[in-house]
Design brief:
Layout: H1 7-20, H2 31-58, H3 85-101, H4 103-133, H5 135-143
Helix pairs in contact: 1-3, 1-4, 2-3, 3-4, 4-5
Length: about 150
């Protein structure tokens, strides 16, 4: 794989960018955004933990940098609904930060995060999964969306 930066580090960098750029963008606050922030800060880690549990149940690697060590194709649990629930959980955490601290900048940076993760993490992972699992991965890919 081309990407050597672990996705949690990328998420942290984008989260910090969302928070520290809040003075550059207009301050838009109301109770609805606060409630959405709480919703996403609960949903994001829940999805992440569910995905990790699915990997552990299948006894396969969760490390996206060493994807070639994958021993099984995980398609159960949250993986029935998204091929990338861990990255989806990270997006939800970034959205929580956006709704709480920096709506305009947060939406912008979360969009850039999605593009970055898709290009440098997901697409290379999908190529590796295709080479490891072949037709099984193609069937899974055809019936399950990349994000949601």
């Amino acid at each position: 794989m081309n990407n050597k930066i672990p996705p949690p580090i990328v998420t942290l960098a984008f989260g910090l960018t969302i928070y520290f750029s809040r003075n550059i963008f207009p301050d838009i606050n109301n109770i609805i955004f606060y409630i959405l922030s709480l919703f996403f800060i609960i949903l994001g880690p829940f999805i992440l933990i569910s995905a990790v549990r699915s990997f552990k149940a299948e006894q396969t690697t969760i490390n996206p940098i060493n994807i070639n060590n994958a021993s099984s194709l995980v398609i159960s649990g949250v993986f029935k609904y998204s091929r990338n629930p861990m990255y989806l959980g990270m997006v939800f955490i970034l959205l929580a930060l956006s709704f709480r601290f920096n709506l305009v900048g947060g939406i912008l940076f979360t969009s850039i995060f999605i593009m970055y993760i898709t290009k440098f993490q997901i697409i290379p992972e999908e190529a590796a999964m295709k080479s490891i699992f072949g037709e099984d991965f193609n069937k899974y890919k055809n019936k399950t969306r990349r994000w949601i």
